[in-house]
Amino acid sequence: MLKKALLAVTCSVLMAGNAAASLQSCYNDLPNSAPDIRFQDNDNGTVTDLQTNLIWRRCLLGMTWNATTQQCDGEPSVYSWKQALFQTELNYQDASESGKSWRMPNIKELVSLREVACISPALNLQAFPGLFREEADKWEMNRTVWSATPHAQSQTILTFGLNDGMTTHFGPQDVELGVLLVKDGK
Fold this sequence. Notes:
- Mean pLDDT is 82; it is low at 1-21.
- The protein starts with a helix and ends with a strand.
- The strands form four sheets. Strands 2-3-4-11 form a four-stranded antiparallel sheet, with no helix packed on it. It has a three-stranded antiparallel sheet with strand order 8-9-10. The protein has a two-stranded antiparallel ribbon with strand order 1-7.
- It is globular.
- It has one domain.
- It has three helices and eleven strands, in the order αββββββααβββββ.
- It is an alpha+beta fold.
- Residues 1-21 form the signal peptide.
- It comes from Photobacterium atrarenae.
- Keywords: Signal.
- Residues 45-165 form the Lcl C-terminal domain.
Protein backbone atom coordinates (compact mmCIF):
# COMPACT_ATOMS: atom_id res chain seq x y z
CA MET A 1 0.00 0.00 0.00
CA LEU A 2 2.82 2.40 0.93
CA LYS A 3 4.64 1.62 -2.32
CA LYS A 4 1.51 2.43 -4.35
CA ALA A 5 1.03 5.73 -2.50
CA LEU A 6 4.68 6.66 -3.03
CA LEU A 7 4.44 5.77 -6.71
CA ALA A 8 1.28 7.87 -7.09
CA VAL A 9 2.94 10.91 -5.46
CA THR A 10 6.08 10.49 -7.60
CA CYS A 11 4.02 10.25 -10.80
CA SER A 12 1.95 13.30 -9.92
CA VAL A 13 5.10 15.35 -9.22
CA LEU A 14 6.63 14.28 -12.53
CA MET A 15 3.44 15.00 -14.43
CA ALA A 16 3.10 18.41 -12.77
CA GLY A 17 6.67 19.22 -13.78
CA ASN A 18 6.00 18.08 -17.34
CA ALA A 19 2.79 20.13 -17.49
CA ALA A 20 4.67 23.25 -16.39
CA ALA A 21 7.48 22.54 -18.85
CA SER A 22 4.96 22.21 -21.68
CA LEU A 23 3.88 25.79 -20.99
CA GLN A 24 7.39 27.03 -21.75
CA SER A 25 8.96 27.54 -25.18
CA CYS A 26 12.76 27.23 -25.35
CA TYR A 27 15.25 27.59 -28.17
CA ASN A 28 17.64 24.66 -28.40
CA ASP A 29 20.28 26.63 -30.31
CA LEU A 30 20.73 29.26 -27.55
CA PRO A 31 22.81 28.57 -24.46
CA ASN A 32 20.87 28.70 -21.19
CA SER A 33 21.53 31.79 -19.10
CA ALA A 34 19.90 30.29 -15.98
CA PRO A 35 20.51 26.52 -16.19
CA ASP A 36 19.34 24.09 -13.51
CA ILE A 37 22.87 23.62 -12.13
CA ARG A 38 23.01 27.32 -11.26
CA PHE A 39 20.37 26.88 -8.53
CA GLN A 40 20.75 24.91 -5.31
CA ASP A 41 17.56 23.66 -3.68
CA ASN A 42 17.71 24.52 0.03
CA ASP A 43 14.90 22.05 0.91
CA ASN A 44 12.89 24.78 2.62
CA GLY A 45 11.02 26.55 -0.17
CA THR A 46 14.06 28.58 -1.23
CA VAL A 47 16.82 28.26 -3.80
CA THR A 48 20.30 29.72 -3.77
CA ASP A 49 21.54 31.21 -7.03
CA LEU A 50 25.14 29.98 -7.08
CA GLN A 51 26.11 32.68 -9.58
CA THR A 52 24.85 35.68 -7.60
CA ASN A 53 24.85 34.09 -4.12
CA LEU A 54 21.28 35.32 -3.56
CA ILE A 55 18.63 33.24 -1.80
CA TRP A 56 15.21 33.39 -3.50
CA ARG A 57 11.83 32.33 -2.19
CA ARG A 58 10.49 29.86 -4.74
CA CYS A 59 6.92 31.19 -4.45
CA LEU A 60 5.41 34.63 -4.87
CA LEU A 61 3.87 36.31 -1.83
CA GLY A 62 0.46 34.76 -1.18
CA MET A 63 1.62 31.33 -2.36
CA THR A 64 3.02 28.66 -0.05
CA TRP A 65 5.67 26.05 -0.72
CA ASN A 66 4.37 22.48 -0.70
CA ALA A 67 7.30 20.21 0.21
CA THR A 68 5.39 17.08 -0.81
CA THR A 69 4.61 18.14 -4.38
CA GLN A 70 7.63 20.46 -4.71
CA GLN A 71 5.31 23.17 -6.06
CA CYS A 72 3.87 26.50 -5.01
CA ASP A 73 0.25 26.27 -3.85
CA GLY A 74 -2.35 29.01 -3.86
CA GLU A 75 -2.60 32.21 -5.82
CA PRO A 76 -0.14 35.10 -5.68
CA SER A 77 -1.26 38.20 -3.83
CA VAL A 78 -1.06 41.58 -5.54
CA TYR A 79 0.04 44.83 -4.00
CA SER A 80 0.71 48.41 -4.94
CA TRP A 81 4.42 49.13 -4.59
CA LYS A 82 3.95 50.88 -1.26
CA GLN A 83 1.80 48.00 0.04
CA ALA A 84 4.47 45.53 -1.12
CA LEU A 85 7.16 47.40 0.78
CA PHE A 86 4.96 47.51 3.87
CA GLN A 87 4.11 43.77 3.68
CA THR A 88 7.77 42.89 3.27
CA GLU A 89 8.85 45.11 6.15
CA LEU A 90 6.04 43.93 8.44
CA ASN A 91 6.03 40.19 7.76
CA TYR A 92 9.37 39.13 6.35
CA GLN A 93 12.00 40.75 8.53
CA ASP A 94 14.00 37.83 9.92
CA ALA A 95 16.96 39.02 11.94
CA SER A 96 17.61 35.51 13.28
CA GLU A 97 19.78 34.68 10.27
CA SER A 98 22.76 37.00 10.80
CA GLY A 99 20.64 40.08 10.15
CA LYS A 100 19.76 38.95 6.62
CA SER A 101 16.12 39.76 5.99
CA TRP A 102 13.82 39.07 3.07
CA ARG A 103 13.49 42.10 0.82
CA MET A 104 12.20 43.17 -2.57
CA PRO A 105 15.00 42.66 -5.10
CA ASN A 106 16.42 45.43 -7.23
CA ILE A 107 15.85 45.24 -10.97
CA LYS A 108 19.34 43.86 -11.72
CA GLU A 109 18.74 40.97 -9.33
CA LEU A 110 15.39 40.17 -10.95
CA VAL A 111 16.81 40.38 -14.48
CA SER A 112 19.57 37.97 -13.44
CA LEU A 113 16.85 35.29 -13.17
CA ARG A 114 15.81 35.69 -16.81
CA GLU A 115 16.31 32.59 -18.91
CA VAL A 116 17.13 34.10 -22.32
CA ALA A 117 16.69 30.77 -24.13
CA CYS A 118 13.04 30.49 -23.01
CA ILE A 119 9.85 32.48 -23.11
CA SER A 120 6.42 31.98 -21.64
CA PRO A 121 7.82 31.89 -18.97
CA ALA A 122 11.34 33.31 -19.20
CA LEU A 123 12.33 31.72 -15.91
CA ASN A 124 13.95 28.49 -14.79
CA LEU A 125 10.96 26.29 -13.95
CA GLN A 126 13.09 23.82 -12.00
CA ALA A 127 14.12 26.56 -9.57
CA PHE A 128 10.67 28.21 -9.52
CA PRO A 129 8.09 25.45 -10.02
CA GLY A 130 4.40 26.10 -9.75
CA LEU A 131 4.44 29.82 -10.51
CA PHE A 132 2.75 28.98 -13.81
CA ARG A 133 0.29 26.11 -13.62
CA GLU A 134 -1.85 26.87 -16.64
CA GLU A 135 -1.72 28.97 -19.79
CA ALA A 136 -3.85 31.77 -18.33
CA ASP A 137 -1.32 32.32 -15.50
CA LYS A 138 1.15 33.76 -18.01
CA TRP A 139 -0.90 36.86 -18.57
CA GLU A 140 -1.95 37.62 -15.00
CA MET A 141 -0.61 40.85 -13.53
CA ASN A 142 0.47 38.94 -10.42
CA ARG A 143 3.16 37.23 -12.56
CA THR A 144 4.80 40.63 -13.08
CA VAL A 145 6.73 41.57 -9.96
CA TRP A 146 7.81 44.80 -8.33
CA SER A 147 11.46 45.68 -7.92
CA ALA A 148 12.93 48.04 -5.36
CA THR A 149 14.37 50.18 -8.18
CA PRO A 150 12.89 53.55 -9.13
CA HIS A 151 12.97 54.54 -12.81
CA ALA A 152 15.75 57.08 -13.41
CA GLN A 153 13.71 59.59 -15.45
CA SER A 154 10.27 59.36 -13.88
CA GLN A 155 8.49 58.82 -10.61
CA THR A 156 7.77 55.19 -11.44
CA ILE A 157 9.12 51.83 -10.25
CA LEU A 158 10.78 49.22 -12.49
CA THR A 159 9.03 45.86 -12.75
CA PHE A 160 9.97 42.44 -14.16
CA GLY A 161 7.68 40.13 -16.12
CA LEU A 162 8.29 36.52 -15.10
CA ASN A 163 6.52 35.34 -18.24
CA ASP A 164 8.31 37.43 -20.88
CA GLY A 165 11.45 38.57 -19.05
CA MET A 166 10.68 42.20 -19.88
CA THR A 167 11.25 45.20 -17.65
CA THR A 168 8.59 47.89 -17.54
CA HIS A 169 7.69 50.61 -15.10
CA PHE A 170 4.54 51.72 -13.33
CA GLY A 171 3.64 54.38 -10.83
CA PRO A 172 3.85 53.10 -7.24
CA GLN A 173 0.05 53.36 -6.82
CA ASP A 174 -1.04 52.74 -10.45
CA VAL A 175 -1.26 48.93 -10.48
CA GLU A 176 -1.13 45.94 -8.17
CA LEU A 177 1.56 43.39 -8.99
CA GLY A 178 3.18 40.31 -7.49
CA VAL A 179 6.20 40.17 -5.20
CA LEU A 180 9.13 37.73 -5.23
CA LEU A 181 11.42 38.04 -2.22
CA VAL A 182 15.19 37.64 -1.99
CA LYS A 183 17.87 37.86 0.64
CA ASP A 184 21.61 37.97 0.55
CA GLY A 185 23.44 34.68 0.83
CA LYS A 186 26.67 33.86 2.61
